Amino acid sequence: MPTFRRQAQRASAPRTVRTTSYRNADKKIVAPRTSVKTAPSAPMPAPPSPQPTTGHDAILLTLPVPPSINHQYATVNGRRLLSSVGRAYKAHVGQLVWLKLAQSTDRASLLSRFQSEWLALSIRFYFTSALRRDVDGGLKIAQDALCEGLGINDNRIVETHLYKHIDKDNPRIEVSLAPAGNS
What we know:
Blueprint: H1 3-12, E1 15-18, E2 28-31, E3 59-63, H2 69-72, E4 73-76, E5 79-82, H3 84-103, H4 107-116, E6 119-127, H5 139-150, E7 157-166, E8 172-179
Parallel strand pairs: 6-7
Antiparallel strand pairs: 1-2, 3-8, 4-5, 6-8
Helix pairs in contact: 3-5
């Protein structure tokens, strides 16, 4: 049989893949062999950065970069708990949120909307390096801290947008929280 026929048969034949999980350590699944071809794409320009303000529809804040996921939690007696660094970050963000709300003239209507509508969260991470942090590593703690500071449940957030930028001189996150459909 010519070589190209064997290669074509091998490429189209299903292959056995071993998956590992704590429930099914030796479970095998059959996955078809496929090849993926992607066209080169042009780099997308960064969307415009929001201005840090509050309004009737949204709250926009500039906050410190959250601790890395390795520093957010500690294991105590076999349990994963929020570390002292994580607790301090959440407390600091809570204070910044309340300071921002105190400056707003329409905070009552804003909080009322946040407590009654579905919400969209947008976070722009500005890191000192492109390769040292994942864009999603700070999402949960930033989302929790923001929502706790506003006194709302974070399960109201139904839409999330994350962006990663580099700013060696001024690492930060820019957060926008608005009713879903307005962001």
